[in-house]
Write a structure and sequence with these properties.
This protein is α/β, with parallel strands linked by helices. The protein is built from eight helices and six strands; from the N terminus they run βαβαααββααβαβα. The protein has a six-stranded parallel beta sheet, with helices on both faces. β5, α7 and β6 form a beta-alpha-beta unit. The longest helix has 15 residues.
């Protein structure tokens, strides 16, 4: 059985990245543990028109019933997994410190904070674990597991820059939501998939979401 991927959604702009990431992980057969901050709830409603009731939330409302294989653009291995069954999607309230992701004894394949707000970033690098998301991130740092932070802010202050540096020094992968344009962009979906593809690369999850540099079209 593969280890679950921890996904946290916080209050930076970029909810569309999180929704696409969840769908790709779920429909390619991966198990996901999900937590959403209060600010993440607000951004989801503002940007996508989706109201998330965090106290009684059904995480499957964020994933479609199915995704055509061509749309998912999976590798052959992932296609075979998809043909078997989707993964699982378990939700944990941001205040629930009894959830598996709050302890280093519960293993994972890595954690993604997407998008990652400035407040969440600050909480992580300064060890201020005021919610489950910050605690889970601290767990991944102390256990030397993959922690991917996807901030989305511009311009950025000196304090923000310093927090990004501290996160990188602590072992996190800092991956700002800055999609490239070299992979044959034809739609907004291509830009979204660029970021999701780079996240999957860091998690060492096979995919074919984008044309790589130097590949033939």
């Amino acid at each position: 059985m593969s280890l679950p991927v921890v996904v946290a959604i916080t209050g930076a702009s970029g909810a569309v990245y999180a929704r696409r990431l969840l769908n790709v992980l779920y429909h390619s057969g991966h198990d996901v543990q999900l937590s959403i901050s209060q600010s993440g709830q607000t951004v989801f409603q503002q940007e996508l028109g989706i109201r998330l009731e965090l106290d009684s939330f059904d995480p499957t409302t964020l994933v479609t019933d199915s995704i055509p294989a061509d749309d998912l653009r999976l590798t052959e291995t992932a296609r075979q997994n998809q043909a078997t069954k989707p993964g699982t999607l378990r939700y944990y309230h941001f205040g629930n410190f009894m959830s598996p992701m709050a302890s280093g004894s519960a293993r994972s394949a890595g954690m993604v904070v997407c998008p990652c707000s400035g407040g969440t970033l600050a909480g992580i690098v300064h060890g201020n674990c005021t919610n489950l998301i910050q605690r889970a991130a601290e767990v991944h740092l102390k256990e030397r597991r993959k922690l991917i932070l996807v901030p989305r802010e511009t311009p950025i202050s000196l304090g923000y820059i310093d927090n990004l540096r501290k996160a990188a020094e602590a072992g996190a992968v800092v991956m700002p939501a800055m999609p490239g344009w070299y992979h044959g962009v034809e739609s907004l979906d291509d830009l979204i998939d660029f970021m999701v593809a780079r996240i999957l690369d860091q998690l060492e999850i096979p995919h074919a979401l984008m044309q790589r540099w130097g590949e033939d079209a």
